[in-house]
Structures are given as structure tokens and as C-alpha cells.
Amino acid sequence: MNDKVILASASPRRKELLEQIGLAFEVIPSRAEEKELPGETPEEHVVRLSIDKASEVANRPEITGRWFIGSDTIVLCNGQILGKPLDEQQAAVMLRQLSGREHQVLSGYAILDRETGRQRTEAVMTRVRFRELTDEEITRYIASGEPADKAGAYAIQGLGVCFVAGIEGSYTNVVGLPLCRLTLALKELGIPLSI
User: Fold this and answer.
1) Residue ranges making up the domain that contains 135
2) CB atoms inside a 10 Å sphere around CB 113
3) Does residue 36 sit within a domain?
4) How many domains in the chain?
């Protein structure tokens, strides 16, 4: 068994965030199904999906590695989960919902240790406040293509930052991984980091 770390995500943002902290890892996207379960809290939802994603890759017999990181991010507005928009029309509906309001971004993560069976999981919440958006801004933003694969139809690390009037909590959590909390969990598990 080697000590390789695997990121079970196709997200380029999560890859960049882990590179930022100097973690040596490989990317193997998970094929786990992302669906909501009835009666699940938003926190339970993101943690369960994070575990599902990490487990799906860890359970593939052809994959070598010891630690597997899964993650899931959702936007919560007025108690409603906003995932990735299915099309431009849904993206516009989501952006109108967020306009002039505060919402929460929840990112869950799971780190599974294939050798010992140990795992660390957590859901981290960040509050984000949008300014009022005009219909023209929403149309232009959707035309940029940026909302297409983002929870809540925006990217705080891209053009979407122009809509953010304020933030309370972890910025990287909104991007896709709560690095402050994640690095502590990685250290607890004995995964070597440069910091």
C-alpha cells in the first residue's frame, strides 16, 4: 500500500486549491451519483456526497493510493438547495434568487484512509451577500459561460466576484474546499503538508 493521496473530483477549482497548499496528489474523478435524499439536512447532504465520492474511487480495485478526498458544495438560499444549473434558464432563476440577498455556501469534505479505515468528515458554512443584480448583468454573466457548472450558478473566483457585496467565513469554502479546516484534518491523519 502506498501513501498516495487521491482527489476524487473533476473540479479544476479543487485541484488548484490543493496545489495551493503544496499537497502532492493525483486526480481521479468520482462517478458517484449526486442526488438529494428526502429528510436530509444540507449539512448531511454535502457530507454524504463527499463520502460517496471518495468511497467510489477508493473502492475501485485498480486504483492504488491510501488517502481519498471527496467534496461537495451547495448554495443554500431561503432554505432551498441550489446545485449546478441544468441550463441557462435555470441559471437565470438562481441568480435572481441570490440578487440582493444573503445566502449560505456549504462545502462538505471527506478524507478516507484506505489502510486504517479512518475518516474525517465535516461540513463548513460561509455566508455570502450579493448586491442587487440587473437583468442585463444576469444575461451577460450567463453568456460568459461561467455559471454552467457552478453551484448556485456563480463562481466567486471568477466574474461572479463582482456580485459579492460581503462574505463571512472561509473564502476557499465558497470556491469548493474549506482549506483551513481541511489542512487541520489532513495533519490529524498524518498526511504530509508543506505548511
Assistant:
1) 5-188
2) 16
3) yes
4) 1
Among 15, 45, 10, 17, smallest CA distance to 181 is for 17
DSSP code string of 125-175 = EEEEEEPP--HHHHHHHHHTTGGGGSGGG--TTTGGGGGEEEEES-HHHHH
- Cβ atoms of 155 and 146 within 8 Å: the answer is yes
194 inside domain: no
Question: What is the reported pLDDT for 104?
Answer: 98
Question: Given this model, what pLDDT does residue 176 score?
Answer: 94
- pLDDT tens across 74-125, in order? 999 998 999 899 999 999 999 999 999 999 999 999 999 999 999 999 999 9
57 in Cβ contact with 6 (< 8 Å): yes
| End-to-end Cα separation, the chain, in angstroms | 25
Query: Is 193 a domain residue?
Result: no
High-pLDDT (> 90) share of the chain, % = 91
pLDDT exceeding 70 applies to what percent of the chain? 99
Residue 171 belongs to some domain of the structure: yes
Hey, which residues are catalytic here? 72
Place of cell 442587487: 132
Which residues are paired to 104 by β-bridges? 76, 127
